[in-house]
Amino acid sequence: METPQLDAAGDLRHLLTLDGLGRERITTLLDAAQALRPHALGRVAAQPLAGRTVVNLFFENSTRTRSSFHLAARRLGADVLDFDVGSSSARKGESLIDTLRNLEAMGADLFVVRHSESAAVAALAAAAAPATSIVNAGDGRNAHPTQGLLDLLTIRQHKGSDFGALTVAIVGDIAHSRVARSDIHGLRALGVGTLRIAAPANLLPAERWPGVEICHDVDSALRDADVVIALRLQRERMEEGLVDSLDGYWRDWGLTPPRLRLARPDAIVMHPGPMNRGVEIDDAVADGAQSVILAQVANGVAVRMAILAQLANRTAP
Amino acid sequence: METPQLDAAGDLRHLLTLDGLGRERITTLLDAAQALRPHALGRVAAQPLAGRTVVNLFFENSTRTRSSFHLAARRLGADVLDFDVGSSSARKGESLIDTLRNLEAMGADLFVVRHSESAAVAALAAAAAPATSIVNAGDGRNAHPTQGLLDLLTIRQHKGSDFGALTVAIVGDIAHSRVARSDIHGLRALGVGTLRIAAPANLLPAERWPGVEICHDVDSALRDADVVIALRLQRERMEEGLVDSLDGYWRDWGLTPPRLRLARPDAIVMHPGPMNRGVEIDDAVADGAQSVILAQVANGVAVRMAILAQLANRTAP
Amino acid sequence: METPQLDAAGDLRHLLTLDGLGRERITTLLDAAQALRPHALGRVAAQPLAGRTVVNLFFENSTRTRSSFHLAARRLGADVLDFDVGSSSARKGESLIDTLRNLEAMGADLFVVRHSESAAVAALAAAAAPATSIVNAGDGRNAHPTQGLLDLLTIRQHKGSDFGALTVAIVGDIAHSRVARSDIHGLRALGVGTLRIAAPANLLPAERWPGVEICHDVDSALRDADVVIALRLQRERMEEGLVDSLDGYWRDWGLTPPRLRLARPDAIVMHPGPMNRGVEIDDAVADGAQSVILAQVANGVAVRMAILAQLANRTAP
């Protein structure tokens, strides 16, 4: 399936979603990230992005993801411009697209964009100049492709590359989660064996994906799983009446050691962070031997280096 | 005319205003910016500001101008310290001058300063240590000299260097515009043929400049113009009662395609940004073939590189 | 005395406090800072921190101290990540320790931390990974060790290294001052001859230190002092009822030229900044010949370079 994130030659121009990206392109990106993994904690000797400018354009707060992209860009040698939207011309009524065009005119051609609306990043990509590449750092509940990739990389490191042999359970607020959607797209592209999503009834998504099992309780989702992905519960879900109480959520959906024992003994536990300890995950699980949550964070820098390097290479001067 | 921005040897020490700077110095700066233009979109190989620190000291929000200076400084090799005044000691009651002296004591000697009061940047310059240079990034309604220079550079690129042959119209809220004042000073210094300013009666400035024509409607200002500079309407002008309604302003002063046809067919259209589309300028004009608005933005980086390089060179260790 | 800031080999791993650090370690740090002093105003040729990431993790606003650390780190070649806590996951309920672990997982191993609670920085240090070093940039009213070191360095530069021959007076709000505590610890470690602290009764600390004289008026503290350290009066002390009025404070405790004449004629005047001119210090004193306040600021960059270089060297890859 062709997506607007490819250019006329079929090369990746933007990274907007894993939906339709295909197994081959995803595997290539994971391989590149894996090769960069040892460098993700320090600067790469060859600085492929030296003299390039990466703009962090975050219309929604996220210090963690922004920091991860910042470090990824710096370790490749790029300059990073953190464009502070809160105090910017966006407040003066300038359109997103005018903001983009201005930054392009200043010589930036790599943009990392987060926005609270699902369509906003794709709209920017559609309006971008030919030399511009845009990486979606999370748009509404639509997609968070670099999180999806770092999750795939973390699974592959721990469970090998035969995704067909794996059972993966994603548990929590699926409905509002762009992480869940990107994980689902990525796992399906790599041919995951069994994929289950589990959520309270009013936190299940309206969409259905072929072959994805819907679970209405956490126990049946966890049973014999190789990979358990716990999602963050946004506290505002309680105000919206979607969750009765945090205590009730913890009782029915919290990932505790007894529940984790339903999964395979060598199952890994993942979480995109930041965690609500005692709401969706227990300390003993978050910090336990099966947790790979900090490995996810380290892989995040490697994945972002890989994607920035690939997109920058496309438009290298 | 001597201005306090020159040092004892007559060299440029600060850039505070184009008023009195003179044709020769302005032309030298434009030539330097033009030479840097191809480098404005990426890092300069020789890094003349390597190891130097440029401080962005913005007492008034402006992500665009701050980003432009940031990129200009980085592309010359400087480190940039974005001194966030909103969360700084300025809030704790420290004076502007104490803030400056502290940053000087930390080894910074190039300051880019924006302030909402017209006299504030000159006051800082007067108090600065001998090795310090200050670039005015906009002070009250007084001056915005780098915007003036980038406007002159953009005009020269499109219309050649014989400013005496040109008719320039500046349209909009002249009274509150530091851009208009810097444009007027710069255009007069370069010997512009005809210079017209047009604004509603209560947005005309109190000052008069010899040879500058005052127009009370937009049509007479545009007639046969080579260059049209539209200014941003600050929305707070409506709250202040200076503008009856945005609709009325648009009807009487908006730069539309029919109005633009009053100008010369090869006239260029400029705007300092951010634009209020549908208030002072029509989409078809802003994005049309005569618009050089994004060229202004690109020239802004080159102009700021040129001025930073010149001032840094003066105090090179 | 052993403190948790040393590692198993007895080397400095974190800098949390000067309390118990000992004369030898302090002197070594001062010597290193003195050697870096000429470089504190520009980048060091050998970049010992190239490729390393220093995280500025400020849970309390302080643009000055953060800028000083930023410049110190950059001049050693490090990348600096200003982790903006105000807009970060800390707001989403993530614990301090999870924030630290995430940044460690991204490859950061040098943290500069400021927090409004006295125990918070030590708690982070206790939870940090083995390769991580933490510099306390001020925690509650507990400690501000780099300020203490820069004060010691400034005194040594002006008065020589025989601290036993010196009389030092610290004047102002001692009770709430982490600067006062770090100065007291440092001066006692270096064997200061006479150390006096002076404050209004309700701004005196509950602690007592052997040999430290308590003065109940400013005049008796200043008499024959070689060094006068004026402290900032937090304006909120008035709202708390600890100070009757700023005028009254100025009358009774303000450091004026007549009062300064009680000290030795060659006494130096110090202040950690930002100053409340006309509240705790007179312009004529702040800007007078005896003031070394800006020398303190310059020494601050050198001291921070020294400590970052030493800690980075410990964990150099």
Automatic annotation (TrEMBL), chains A, B, C:
Entry's Gene Ontology cellular component terms: cytosol
Domain Aspartate/ornithine carbamoyltransferase carbamoyl-P binding, chain residue ranges per copy: 13-157
GO molecular function: amino acid binding; aspartate carbamoyltransferase activity
EC number: 2.1.3.2
Top-level taxon of origin: Bacteria
Transmembrane feature ranges: none
Record key words, sorted: Pyrimidine biosynthesis, Transferase
Top-rank EC class of the record's enzyme: transferase
Assembly behavior: Heterododecamer (2C3:3R2) of six catalytic PyrB chains organized as two trimers (C3), and six regulatory PyrI chains organized as three dimers (R2).
NCBIfam families linked: asp_carb_tr, PRK00856.1
Family per similarity comment: Belongs to the aspartate/ornithine carbamoyltransferase superfamily. ATCase family.
Function of the protein: Catalyzes the condensation of carbamoyl phosphate and aspartate to form carbamoyl aspartate and inorganic phosphate, the committed step in the de novo pyrimidine nucleotide biosynthesis pathway.
Protein name (record): Aspartate carbamoyltransferase
Organism: Chiayiivirga flava
Lineage: Bacteria, Pseudomonadati, Pseudomonadota, Gammaproteobacteria, Lysobacterales
Protein encoded by which gene: pyrB
